[in-house]
Amino acid sequence: MANNRINVGILFGGKSAEHEISLRSAKNVIEALDTSRFYPVLIGITKQGKWLYDEASELILGEGENLSLNIDSSEVALVPNSGGQIHYVANGKWAEKVDVVFPILHGPMGEDGATQGLLKLANVPFVGCDVLGSAVGMDKDVMKRILRDAGLPIGKYIALRSHEVRPTFAEISTELGIPCFVKPANLGSSVGINRADTEDEYNRALDEAFAFDRKIVIEEFVDGREIECAILGNEEPKASVPGEISFSANFYSYEAKYLDDKGYRIDIPAKITEEQIKEVQDIAVRTFQVLECEGFSRVDVFLTKEGRILVNEINTIPGFTKISMYPKLWEASGVLYTDLISQLIDLGIARHEKVSGLRTSI
Known about the structure:
Layout lengths: L5 E8 L5 H14 L5 E8 L5 E3 L6 E2 L6 E2 L4 E5 L6 E4 L5 E4 L2 E5 L9 H8 L9 H8 L1 H10 L7 E5 L7 H7 L4 E5 L9 E3 L2 H14 L2 E6 L3 E10 L4 E2 L3 E5 L6 H5 L5 E4 L6 H17 L4 E10 L4 E7 L9 H8 L4 H20 L6
Parallel strand pairs: 1-2, 1-9
Antiparallel strand pairs: 2-3, 3-6, 4-5, 6-7, 7-8, 10-13, 11-12, 11-13, 14-15, 14-16, 14-18, 16-17, 18-19
């Protein structure tokens, strides 16, 4: 810590299939952090789950797309109820103390409430949703059930666990229609997602989705435009201008998102009416609140040809590179990338202070 700046633990990498995406997001955040207020403390998590710390801040190696963790860095651990104190595993000595943590982790073991629970046990403020919002936002089945019960519009779907009898292609065709989409219930960034138009594609999609998760969702095809809206805030969240994703492939795949810069087009703001903008924003804020989210999230919806808006999903730690939708939506709404990062850190600290003031006993 220097000049009384706030030590921000940038937590990135992780064990999920979205490890590399996390590295890209973290590199951008580190480069854009307002260093007049914040001092970055880099903590990288390997695919094996080890927490690494490098005092020289050289945890992310490589340029452009070729990013990796410096595995020669020291392994550290976060101490429960320490208020952000971390220590070296090898000798137990204290390392840097973090005043607040920005977890830039996508997918299971990072975005699903597990890391958030650990940070709460350590009694350290952190950016983004709390345990509950993170957990329900990660599980597409639980998320959709809560949205449905709250009266929010969603598409038809079924959930399937690995030990259950798989519905036949004919049964899915009758219940949901063809094509359909098959997805792991607890993953993001379009990893493990496939569109199925034929029986062979359907069976292969089931196998691939179950390779990533014990529970999957099979969703109806919604013939509509994909609109995204960024949410920012705690008790009184605000919505950005909506944006639209259109793509050349038959769906917005992992390859289209991250490997083919010509595979999609982004329109910010989305080319929709003022009434539709207001409806998207209202539904996005309500989705955020119904799912008990805080800090930030991105809500993705479909706008059908009939003008209906259906909630597709929420992303509680959306991609955070400078060209990712969440920062771009806020930039179009008047909040620049560095200021957005600062606001998120402030929101995490403010929530922690309010929670710390609550009584814990009678």
